[in-house]
Amino acid sequence: MGNLKIGAGFPGKGGTTIEVQVLEKVVIDPKRDGILNVDNLPVWYVSLNNEQTEALEDVLKAGGGSFAVAAAAVPPAAAVFGTISAALLAAIPIIKEMNKLGGHNGVDINGVIGTLGLIVTPRIGKIYGDLINAARLAVKGRTIIDFMIFASTKIPALSMALNIGAVASILAAIESGTPLGWAIAGTFGVVMDILKPEPDPNEHGAVVADRNQVGPWETFHLGQLGEGNKVALLSHMGCFSAQQGGGQGVYANRPWVKEWETWTLIDNNDGTVSFQTIGGHFLCAENGGDSVCQANRISIGNWEKFFLVNLPDGRVALKTHDKGKFVSVQP
Q: Phi first, then psi: what are they for 195, rounded to 5°?
């Protein structure tokens, strides 16, 4: 048995603690109790209520308290507790942000041993079952977003469930030696011709902010990348990529997470967030919406502010501050 029941956090002498006990035939109260599940390693998840989420950082910095004690009693948990604890500590900014996004009802945290970063969603939005299926095929990836994309090339049902079939096709083509431009064009039926120049990859995956409602093109996976509030946004076409690392346009068509696809999530403390590129520029919805998005602003104004909208399946949408338009990725 690799499950731990996590009881409610409560203040005690010397700081806040989290009560943990081995989960056997115990009834779980989803409003109060949390779970650490390591039954299907390398995939694991932690599910916490609001109180536990708020207590998590202090508890882990203090060595894990009863969390660590209980983990030591369950061999699968004992073997990986240090790795899980470090990953949770590194993701505290995103964990707090997603708890706030979900109305302070707690979070689900999904991880894979051996990959950087976590998928954190407001409770209950875990994609645990999808990750387990991928792990069974010994899928690997540098970050958890890379893991999801690569897994989708192996499991068609997973690519459909995650709405990243096009991304999976692009990566599969690249893995077979096809250049990026041809791989993207091939997803739309263009046959590669070595006598012709490689198509511009950015003919597809344009990012615009002009939609009034959320559909498949407006839903994204937000993945924490293992270092504080560093994140990647995965669309149906690929990861949001700031060209040249910032200062230019943005396209969501890359089947990987590299420097151009790495963003810093900034909480503006007014209900909105901003996304900063590796080069220091900010994602911008031109005219506050009804236009294209760029990654070329050097400061945050209203056009660089977005509402992070929680969706029922654990994905998110981005809504512009001024005009309330949803960000959309074009095929």
A: -85, -10
Residue 313 C-alpha from the chain's centroid: 13
Task: For residue 18, give the nearest of 37, 43, 35 by alpha carbon.
Answer: 35
Q: Give the pTM.
A: 0.86
Q: Same structural domain for residues 303 and 223?
A: yes
For residues 257 and 319, membership in a common domain is answered with yes
In a domain, 139, yes or no: no
295 inside domain: yes
* In-domain check, residue 304: yes
Same domain, 209 and 323: yes
Q: Which domain holds residue 171?
A: 144-201
- Whole-angstrom distance, CA of residue 16 vs CA of residue 49: 15
Sign of dihedral through CA atoms 294, 217, 239, 97? positive
Task: Report yes or no: 248 and 295 within 8 Å, Cβ to Cβ.
Answer: yes
Tally of CA atoms within 13 A in the half-sphere of 210 that contains its CB: 11
Q: What is the DSSP string of 138-194?
A: T---SBHHHHHHHHHHH-HHHHHHHT-HHHHHHHHHHHTT--HHHHHHHHTTPPP-T
**CA-closest candidate to residue 311, choices 94, 48, 46, 127:** 127
Q: How many domains does the chain have?
A: 3
Tens digit of pLDDT per residue, the chain (331 long)? 445 555 444 333 333 334 444 333 334 444 555 677 777 788 888 888 888 888 888 888 887 765 666 667 667 777 888 898 899 999 999 999 999 988 888 888 989 999 999 999 887 665 656 676 666 666 678 899 999 999 899 888 889 988 999 999 999 999 999 999 999 999 988 888 878 999 999 999 999 999 999 999 999 999 999 888 999 999 999 999 999 999 999 999 999 999 999 999 999 999 999 999 999 999 999 999 999 999 999 999 999 999 999 997 789 999 999 999 999 999 9
Domain match, 25 and 83 both: yes
Asked, for residue 80, whether it belongs to a domain, the answer is yes
Report the CATH number at residue 245.
2.80.10.50
DSSP code, position 84: H
